[in-house]
Design brief:
The structure holds two protein chains of two kinds. Chain A is of the alpha+beta class. Helices cover 37% and strands 24% of the residues of chain A. In chain A, strands 5-6-7-2-13-12 form a six-stranded mixed β-sheet, sandwiched between helices. A four-stranded mixed β-sheet of chain A has the order 8-15-14-11, with helices on one face. In chain A, strands 1-4-3 form a three-stranded antiparallel β-sheet, with no helix packed on it. Classes of the chains: A alpha+beta, B mainly alpha. Chains A and B meet through helix 10 of A and helix 3 of B.
Chain lengths: 440, 107
């Protein structure tokens, strides 16, 4: 058994293994692992001195930010490094101006290949050219999840030192374990089998995958679209009309499935399947900041339902209601706990991929971040013009749709692996997506 | 053969709430149970005791997934069916609104 050569700061919790298994899959494709990004486009250079001081404070408060992820046996730990890697770096455009210095730098950072032990769990980057400033927070799953990143931003933007002390209090530990503690051992076993039955049922229908998997993954690329106020209002009205106030994410998922289907209705497979994570944190809670505290669920729609919009949304809604009624969301937790003791390869096979065939279950990855907490904020004296999200993806599906609402406008980030997908294809897909979203 | 209901805490609570207590007390208990569920499971409020029955739950962080869970919880706990078509901000944006909505559907 491999022995750790440095001090353990923190062990991973069961939800972290779920994202680490994704990291492992991505790395096996010779890609950089599960790197994610959250970027702000700013109207001017922020107050760098204060920003840097706040980032240093963040590192002191959360030392795992400097840690190295190391394995001992089947378990993984955040371990102390001999020397801390600086958390903040600046990237300035040189004399020779490139067409899109900002996008190229973001892509370089998100596609940077480093050994798992060497990579910085989180890093903050300010990309500056004469008229443009982008602030990128890059993190690696399993350091934290999207809600955690929202909290980190909130921490950085909180000017009152006393208020900053409230982050991560109370110290809650693993929310998967906390939720599991509510159940007796026989209830956990019952939940475990309930989740297994749920997975088996999903796997009866092979998923439709659009990526051309005969080609080798090259690198992640992304395209962002910010909708207008009018488009956003119309879409929000449609959400209420078609899925009600409880189904915003389901509306995006349904529209995205239909848009994909319209791109190529002859695509092999019997159903579209999209995973979506739900946070175990209470809303508005400032704790826990680090690690992953999510459960996983899937939305699945058989091909036959895609031609009828109302039937499709009704199906997604019923499916989601059944999941909550049968408590399948929590049923996944014991499976996640149990799978955290497996090898990463087996973990992915058991939870993420189709169990029987070992093929990809997800037609695409999906995340609806919702209204972001940075919405109303000015970032270190600089106004935030727009935001976008990034995430590395396994291939297949090689495609992720990330949505959020910022400043009352919807922003969609399409993340895709080239050359399995290309920018023109994504543009066409977005046009169809927009049609679907705006359809009365 | 007569079916004997399973006696557990939920059943006792439900029985006491629906049969033995005066109507006003039943309402207070129902509201308290909904409060506990929301603050224990769905949203974080630093001082829940200061959160009034008219304060805005949506502003406080009750989101679509939370509303779904809340409705399932209410339906299970108080043997009531809340129609999908009535899931509306006006019915879920405060404890008082929730109470009125639930009572409207209780026979």
């Amino acid at each position: 058994m491999k022995k750790l050569d440095s001090t353990i700061l923190q062990a991973l919790n069961p939800s972290d293994y779920f994202t680490l298994a994704m990291d492992d899959e991505i790395r096996r494709e010779n890609m950089p692992g599960s790197l994610c990004g959250f970027a702000l486009n700013l109207d001017k250079e922020p107050d760098i001195e204060t920003l840097q001081a706040r980032i240093i404070e963040f590192g002191e408060r959360f030392p795992v930010a400097y840690a190295s992820l190391q394995q001992q046996g089947k378990r993984f730990f955040w371990c102390q490094r001999e020397q801390n890697i600086p958390l903040f770096s600046q990237h300035k455009e040189g004399a020779t101006q490139s067409a899109d210095f900002h996008k190229e730098t973001v892509l370089d950072l998100i596609n940077q290949k480093q050994a798992r032990e060497d990579i910085s769990p989180i890093s903050f980057h300010l990309i500056s050219s004469a008229n443009k400033h982008t602030f990128l927070l890059r993190w690696v799953h399993p350091f934290c999840d999207a809600r955690g990143v929202d909290l980190i931003f909130k921490f950085l933007c909180t000017n009152d030192a006393d208020q900053r002390l409230k982050f991560n209090l109370p110290e809650l530990g693993s929310l998967v374990n906390l939720h599991l503690e509510k159940y007796k051992w026989w209830q956990k076993i019952a939940l475990f089998f309930q989740a297994k039955r749920y997975i088996t049922k999903l796997d009866q229908l092979p998923s439709i995958i659009h990526a051309d998997t005969t080609q080798t993954p090259k690198q992640l690329n992304f395209t962002n679209f910010t909708l207008t106020d009018e488009q956003t209002t119309r879409i929000n009205t449609n959400v209420r009309k078609h899925v009600g106030m409880t189904g915003t994410s389901l509306y995006y998922i349904g529209c995205f499935m239909r848009a994909l289907h319209r791109m190529d209705p002859t695509q092999k497979g019997e159903a579209y399947c999209a995973p979506y994570a739900f946070s175990l944190r209470k809303n508005k809670s400032l704790s826990p900041v680090l690690a992953n505290h999510v459960g996983a669920l899937f939305a699945q729609v058989p091909k036959a339902l895609l031609n009828d919009r109302s039937a499709l949304f009704q199906h997604l809604k019923n499916e989601n209601m059944q999941v909550i009624r049968k408590k399948l969301d929590y049923a996944f937790l014991p499976v996640m706990w149990a799978a955290s003791w497996l090898s990463l390869e087996k973990h992915g096979k058991e939870l993420r991929k189709s169990y029987a065939s070992g093929t990809e279950r997800s037609s695409f990855w999906f995340s609806d971040i919702g209204k972001t907490d940075v919405s109303e904020m000015v970032f270190f004296d600089s106004k935030i013009n727009s935001i976008f999200h990034l995430c590395q993806i396994t291939s297949p599906p090689a495609l992720a749709f990330l949505s959020c609402q910022f400043n009352k406008r919807l922003t969609f980030s399409y993340n895709f692996i080239e050359p399995l997908f290309h920018a023109q294809w994504i543009d066409q897909l977005h046009d169809l997506m927009l049609e679907e979203l705006l359809m009365e | 053969m007569m079916r004997v209901p399973k006696l557990n805490h939920d059943f006792l609570y439900f029985y006491v709430c629906t049969h033995l207590l005066p109507s006003h007390t039943r309402k207070v208990l129902m509201k308290q149970k909904i409060r506990d569920f929301i603050f224990d499971e769905l949203i974080f409020v630093a001082e829940p005791e200061k959160f009034s029955d008219d304060d805005d739950l949506l502003e406080a962080g009750l989101d679509s997934m939370g509303i779904m869970r809340l409705i399932m919880f209410i339906e299970e706990q108080f043997a009531v069916t809340l129609p999908d078509s009535e899931i509306d901000p006006d019915n879920v944006n405060s404890f008082n609104a929730l109470e009125a909505w639930v009572i409207q559907h209780k026979s």
